[in-house]
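During the second year of the project, the team shifted from modelling isolated chains to modelling whole assemblies. The rationale, set out in the original proposal, was that interfaces cannot be judged from single-chain predictions alone. As a representative example for this report, we include one of the complexes processed in the last quarter. Its constituent sequences, exactly as entered into the pipeline, are reproduced here:
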Amino acid sequence: MQYIPNILFTIALIAGIGFFTLNIRKVIRNINLGKDINRTDQKSARWKNMLSIAFGQSKMVRRPISGILHLIVYIGFVIINIEVLEIIVDGVLGTHRVFKDYIGTATYGFLIGSFEVLAALVFVAVIIFWTRRNVANIKRFLSSEMKGWPKKDGNFILYFEMVLMALFMVMNATDVPFQQAGTGNVISQFISPLFNGFSSENLQLIERTAWWLHILGILVFLNYLYYSKHLHILLAFPNTYYANLQPKGQFTNLESVTNEVKLMLDPDADPYATPVDESTEEVPEKFGASDVTDLNWVQLMNAYTCTECGRCTSACPANLTGKKLSPRKIMMDTRDRLEEVGRNIDANNGTFKEDGKQLLNDYITPEELWACTSCNACVEECPVNIDPLSIIMDMRRYLVMEESAAPQELNAMMTNIENNGAPWPYNQQDRLNWTKEG
Amino acid sequence: MNVPTMAEMMAQGKQPEVLFWVGAAGSYDDRAKKISKAFVKILHEAKVDFAVLGVEESSTGDAAKRAGNEFLFQMQAMMNIEVLNGYEVKKIVTCDPHSFNTLKNEYPGLGGNYEVFHHTQFIQNLINEGRLKINNTNLKGKRVTFHDPCYLGRANEVYESPRDLIRRLGVNLTEMKRSKRTALCCGAGGAQMFKDAEKGDKEVNILRTEDALETKPEIIATGCPYCNTMMTDGIKFKEKEASVTVKDIAELISEANKL
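Output from the structure prediction step:
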């Protein structure tokens, strides 16, 4: 009988981690639906990016209020996990505060004391976050793409954190031997008087309940990540590692186009050559992107990493002037469509069954795409180096090269470049006229 | 104005120190032509041995690429690279951040490898080498704000060269609340210059002009012909032409040195 809690705990742990692993494998499979792109060069620069941007939060603190609050929650999350380690060991072995005997009461007290302080800070930070999201009317949380699930998701995460921190405190406050030891109960000593007058059985019952709810809550929260923008706590690291290292203005030169253009410009190409047997030829690549599978895996990972903070959108000149474009929505749409494709694959035994939908038009409209000034403000702003601009450009390429669907004035501009070597209808022979004018 | 071409140079068996890539705006747009001329005056003053491609220059293809037409871009790029490599060009300077970015970053992948400078970087080098001096008395004390072009700033992280030159003019440089990496686009990038904006509450260049006007400037300094047009239009829209002028940094230097 006495082993029942240990067994139940172990089952819960295995189930929680097992289900999480299954879902993470789905995320990885979905990301791999993207085209290949080589991001394994310059390893030291990549590590440096990851350490400073994801681990060191250097881009987060550019906006000091949300940056510092986020830093508190982040440090709290990372450090309090040491306590979770103890909970797991206790749970599996049926021990109680097992680390205390190994590292000594003083060190243990210092550790738990700092966890308590962090937990209290996290609790306060999370309440401020909640207020910012729900009361303070901050523009970037009020955009149209933030209605419904995204808004609920943001709040759920905050509730989770509030509850987990509160349970941690209650757990400590009702642990009579821990309180009596008088070490490490920096914050919980102020909470324990609330439980004065409870019988020792009841105290123990509350302590056990808080302990169980705390660890089960953590396991549930772990599994919530897959469904939530909170997945960024894992993906921020690979996302910054694999981020683009080229100058932001350098857009890719499509290789498939290079081959065609070289052929067109080759004076030795024989226009009368017999066409190659088409049955042996590869299907020509689609130019640009109309669906998520046309994007590369880094762009798809970007979509899963996006935490919908909206810093991109709040810096976007098109968005600031009331146009439909929101870089955050581009990322959210990409993730939504990718998850839809993933569910389709799951439902059809591992292969995608045509569903008559795509990223373009069904999620992202040409009006949004054409409003972009390619200014890179969104890329610069993103605290985890997401590149919405690259998706916008790939979709523009599809519109122009596959559908010939550029706005009329842009077609005129391109015709001018083709005919006169300038976006305006001037004669190339007049290129030097300015030197002769007064 | 004496502006030699690469063809003339070649006929004389000469290789200039640098090629001045004028760009379509700098060649045809009435406002931008003034920037080209101001820059040529500076090159003359510093006795820089330069040449232009003239009628052999064609669009870099930047606008086509940002509009999504990779075919047209690469056609333009490869034709330009053929001309540039034919003249064995090593060093290029341009007043247009879009040409700068494309030539510097996107041409190498297609076989065009050059050392490319924005004119503010090039002028800064001339000063550092002692070939040019900026007169810091003629514009002294003027209130100037600088609008960072996206394709010079965020796209290539060139923030200091233009500011260094402005400070050397002896003026009072005041920054907008959005500047350097947080600068707001003028609204012309990404081929927007050539089309009407999508429906919104406001034009981007008006919002950016408001950013600039908040600093109460006498001069809005620019380093891009497209930004120059957008800011000039913004000033007209705000009916501030009488008190605020929009000038490229090359024009300011040329003016300060009375060239």
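The longest helix of chain A spans residues 64-93. Chain A touches chain B through 69 residues (CB under 8 Å).
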